[in-house]
Design brief:
about 25% helix; alpha+beta; 2 helices; Tetrahydropterin Synthase, Chain A; 4-stranded antiparallel beta sheet; about 120 residues
């Protein structure tokens, strides 16, 4: 099995509306995002997926989130947790990538806190 991964970052603000604690207050993160493709076979050039295509799709999605209040995105249901952000980025990338075997997206809020959304 082959795996390729690209990484990028964006900055945004959010608050967790249904949470009780510090994170219910407006705050921001410098998010780091990793997108991974996985598959058993390579194309004629010996690649699973082109890094440039993966990076471009990831950046396209993240540009929509960069320097925004994430709560304004309806799909986050006013509670943009790292889990929901990972799912959003994964689903939006799938629309762009078509047949590229995207397998997971990881969203890091800090160096030590990460949520992952993966294909079943």
């Amino acid at each position: 099995m082959y795996t390729v991964r690209v990484e990028a970052s964006f900055a945004a603000a959010h608050f967790l509306a249904e949470y009780r604690g510090k994170c219910e207050n407006l705050h921001g993160h410098n998010y780091r995002v990793r997108a991974e493709a996985r598959g058993a076979s390579l194309d004629a050039s010996g690649m699973l997926a082109d890094f440039g295509i993966l990076k471009s799709a990831l950046r396209d999605v993240m540009e929509r989130l960069d320097h925004t209040l994430l709560n304004d995105e309806p799909r986050f249901a006013n509670s943009p947790s790292a889990e929901r952000i990972a799912e959003f980025i994964y689903l939006e990338m799938k629309k762009i990538l078509g047949t590229v075997p995207l397998s997971a997206v990881e969203v890091f809020e800090t160096d030590t806190c990460m949520a992952r959304y993966a294909a079943e």
